[in-house]
Design a protein that fits this description.
Layout: E1 10-19, E2 22-32, E3 37-41, H1 48-56, E4 63-68, E5 71-72, E6 83-86, H2 98-103, H3 113-126, H4 142-154, E7 160-164, H5 172-189, E8 192-197, H6 200-206, E9 209-214, E10 217-222, H7 224-229, H8 234-239, E11 244-254, E12 257-262, E13 267-272, E14 282-287, E15 293-295, E16 306-316, E17 320-327, E18 332-338, E19 355-359, E20 366-368
Parallel strand pairs: 3-8, 3-9, 6-7, 7-8
Antiparallel strand pairs: 1-2, 1-4, 4-5, 9-10, 11-12, 11-14, 12-13, 14-20, 15-19, 16-17, 16-19, 17-18
Length: 370
């Protein structure tokens, strides 16, 4: 049951898929609500596309069940499922116009010509392609071709739309723009979307919830902010965004404030937690680069988690700069600083070989046990 007390729209129960001796998907269970934009995120070979193909009916599970809108769809053929799929290649017909490509999805639908025309008109308007209706795929941009493929998938009014790396063929700037377009279309239609992607930023921008997959299993499910700020393992912490990870041992614990000995930093680190942790327990101390403050000037006296080092590498990315700082104990920390002032190189917080002070709050420390 969902938080609202309703049955989930999609229920994946203990799904396993084996290809000979290789297990592509291993005992995965996921529930997805109606109208949700859900992402399957992971690297190559993690099983996300295989799982999507089982939802579509293109692959049959070795074991487990798949329910869509309360109906067992495990052994139902793809063409009998209330599902449509948008492929990464878009698979447009080059000899057909935009409107004929979109309308092709209605070719075998038992509806009147009038309704077909109304759906086509509405879909062209929804994806903002009405002025390009008579053009062919080679006469429109990559982003427009992506919207043609989306419209063709949506015109049949499926209950569930599956998207396999839908923005992979677009350049970075167009991909970022199209992410918001895709989210807006999904919100307007209220159709359940499940997207497969290897791009962390794409998943975090598009999806209401994300399932992070690794070697056939789901490692964590949650919102973008929940997974980013509260990863449950070293794998998830390292896969989602950049992070510094160091081994530590708890030396003191009182009222949610921990003190850990971190040999790589040559110091003790203060951290906050809402979970019981006993002295002597080993934990990985993880800190996001943007949570570390960097300055040429020393911080005020009495501040926790302060250390010093030398800038060895520096990357300028316009809106921010990334520093790699070698601490006095020899550890290398990545530090991100927003460039909030306009100016030349002299306006940056620090330069190569500068000696700098670093500081991070106890609440910024993520503690991982695996």
């Amino acid at each position: 049951m969902t938080e609202t007390g309703e049955e989930p729209f999609i229920r994946i129960e203990g799904i396993t898929k084996k290809f000979g001796a290789f297990t592509a998907v291993d005992n995965v269970s996921i529930t997805i609500d109606k109208g949700e934009f859900f992402a399957l995120l992971g690297g190559s070979g993690c099983g996300k596309t295989t799982l999507l193909r089982m939802l579509a009916g293109f692959e049959t599970p070795t074991s487990g069940r798949i329910f869509i809108d309360g109906q067992d769809m495990t052994d139902v053929a793809p063409y009998d499922r209330p599902v449509n799929m948008m492929f990464q290649s878009y698979a447009l017909f080059p000899h057909m116009t935009v409107e004929k490509n979109i309308a092709y999805g209605l070719k075998h639908e038992r509806i009147s010509e009038k309704e077909k025309d109304e759906r086509l008109r509405d879909m062209l308007e929804l994806v903002q392609l009405t002025p390009y209706a008579t053009r062919k795929p080679h006469q429109i941009s990559g982003g427009q071709r992506q919207r043609v493929a989306l419209a063709r998938a949506l015109i049949k009014q499926p209950k569930l739309l599956l998207l396999d790396e839908p923005l992979g063929a677009l350049d970075k700037k167009l991909r970022e723009h199209t992410q918001f377009e895709l989210s807006n279309i999904q919100y307007k239609l209220g159709i359940t979307f499940v997207v497969v992607t290897h791009d962390q930023e794409e998943a975090m921008t598009l999806a209401s919830r994300i399932a992070v997959m690794d070697r056939g299993v789901v490692r964590q499910i949650g919102t973008a902010s929940g997974i980013y700020e509260y990863p449950n393992s070293r794998f998830v912490a390292g896969f989602i965004g950049s992070i510094n990870m160091l081994d530590g041992v708890v030396t003191a614990s009182e009222n949610g404030l921990l003190r850990l000995d971190v040999p790589a930093l040559g110091m003790t680190v203060d951290a906050r937690t809402d979970r019981p942790v006993a002295p002597g327990e080993k934990r990985t101390v993880a800190i996001r680069p943007e949570k570390i403050r960097i300055s040429r000037e020393p911080p005020p006296a009495g501040q926790p988690n302060c250390l010093q080092g030398v800038v060895r590498d520096l990357g300028y990315f316009g809106k921010d700069s990334l520093y790699r700082v070698v601490t006095d104990a020899g550890a290398v920390l990545s530090v991100n600083s927003v460039n909030d002032r306009r100016g030349g190189e002299g306006e940056r917080v620090a330069e190569w070989e500068d000696r700098v002070h670093l500081r991070f709050d106890p609440g910024a420390v993520i503690l991982l046990s695996e």
